[in-house]
Task: structure prediction
Amino acid sequence: MTWPLTATMAPLLADDINTDVIYPARFLLVLERQGLGDYAFADLRKQDGFVLNDARFASAKILLAGKAFGSGSSREHAVWTLVDCGYAVIIALSFGDIFYRNCIDNGVAPITVRKNELALLAGLANDGVAASVDLEAEAIVWEGGRIGFTLIPSDKQRLLTRQTAIERIEAHSEAVARFRENRTYIF
Amino acid sequence: MTHQEGTGATTLFDKLWHLHVVARASDAEDIVYIDRHLIHEVSSPVAFSLLEAEGRSVRSPENALAVADHAVSTRLGRANMLPLASKQLLRLKENADRNDIRYIDTESADHGIVHMIGSEQGFVLPGHSLVCGDSHTATHGAFGALALPVGTSEIATVLATDCLIRRKPANMRVHLDAPLPPGVGAKDVMLHLIARIGMNGGSGHAIEFCGPGIEAMPMAERMTLCNMTSEAGAATAIIAPDDITFAYLADRPGSPKGDAWTRAVDYWRTLRTDADAIFDATVELHAADIAPMVSWGTNPSQAIPVNRTLPQVDASAPDAAALQRAMDYMGLSPGARLEGLPVDMVFIGSCTNGRIEDLRIAAQFLANRKIATGVSAIVVPGSAKVRAQAEAEGLDRIFIEAGCEWRLAGCSMCVGMNGDTALAGKRVASTSNRNFEGRQGAGARTHLMSPAMAAAAALAGHIVDIRTLSGAVQ
Result:
């Protein structure tokens, strides 16, 4: 993944899309994280007129959603399936806490915006206008427009460097070892 | 040296957090040491593969416990196990064996839903930190433990390093002013709370339950409370340990013994919120205001007291479309009554309400009675221990003679991954924790409620206000 990312957007826009909707439980009997794209929104896809069935949005790399996107179950498959569908950025009004962290762990940028900003982006999406997501500058930019956003610095760093949590913790391995041996709350 | 934020009045959750901070990872994040790790078959395979691909080993296998629960068959002999579920179970066993992690077999007397065995085994103790790759991990906060739900990548991180990198959540206090009225239980408290603060009302917060109402609750009810905080989007839940906690933990396999037990209890008594600690949010619950609750919609916050009617849909409100959609899915209308609504299936079980106490309540209703014609009911004990205890008390006979199926332990109809599902359009009275569209089967209509309410619905063939039943029992 290289940043800034310039891509078209898919206007899902709905509120309260939980991880059961993003990735139904019946597909959890898998042993790998690759190749799960077919299962994304599997039950919504059965409905006529589901926005993501529209071929116009098939190559979008940015997903637009409403509030509480990814709430509910902790299944990381919800992120893996979106990655497999080609999404690198999710722009929403808010995210489920666990889903948010799972995004960061997989290099997917979870960006929070306000309602009027989402509406603006939805208009662009429907017009097929591509936007550029610049993590460093914390901005979504398109011809004639710009929306700023905020990422917690460490989340931004994780997305840009793809440094894993394991690597970051290993930098403190001596402190961890000392801690392990001195846990006074273990009896 | 542990990192300290300051020495002012501190909440229990903050004390536990700081107790486990090894170092600062960044301005906003701490490296948190994890003492215990519960592992199940669905969220772990990719974590172990990740470690293998990187040539990493499990740092402290003695801190982990593995069990298959989500997709195991609950039928006798574990019959009709889905092939992919068997494969996943086998993969968990192989991963555990290869890494010297204790694996509890489905036929073991210690088997059960992952959040049941954590408590039964005394695996999670006050003051400990714990992770599990499951959103209901907060259940263990009932023991005064720091219980954090994690995704698969974080499972790998903990396996490799015994640590997590996290931002500390904020603190929310939920105070219950008195013991609950007859017919009202912890499940009703949670459906009441979530209806009040919303599906994301707890987002970014650890919820501490406190007050006389909490202090009066046995561990089973405390676990039900903590379990369902995930439905409010909370980071986790916590309850200060007390004599009820210590009585539960005494003589459990993982509990300290002898002199160590005495010292442990002395320490555990110090695990409380300070008198002047400041919470970021507070909710006051009045026990007298809480009624038996039933969910009517497609998320846990869409719940009402059983004797009320569904809300009206204000067409101009921003959530009008979503409300209407939920009602359409559930085959209900604005202003509809829930009392008298026929049910087709009843599920008593899950990590929310699959404990012996829950089964006893259900059995009180079902004793010497038969469930209504046309209703099918399954009772799924949360663990082999609960099953054995229930059989010792004759509860299984009660369930079977009433016309229910008596199953083996597993997540079963809560997540519907093992074939325990309902057909489209069927209404399920369920003691589980989520009523999302399609969760209990494509088109299945879930009504969340307490074990008492579910048992009463099985008998009547429709939703009932248990307080109106003559001789109604707690």
Observations:
- The longest strand of chain A covers residues 89-92.
- Chain A touches chain B through 53 residues (CB under 8 Å).
- Residues 134 and 151 of chain A are 11 Å apart (CA to CA).
- The longest helix of chain A spans residues 115-126.
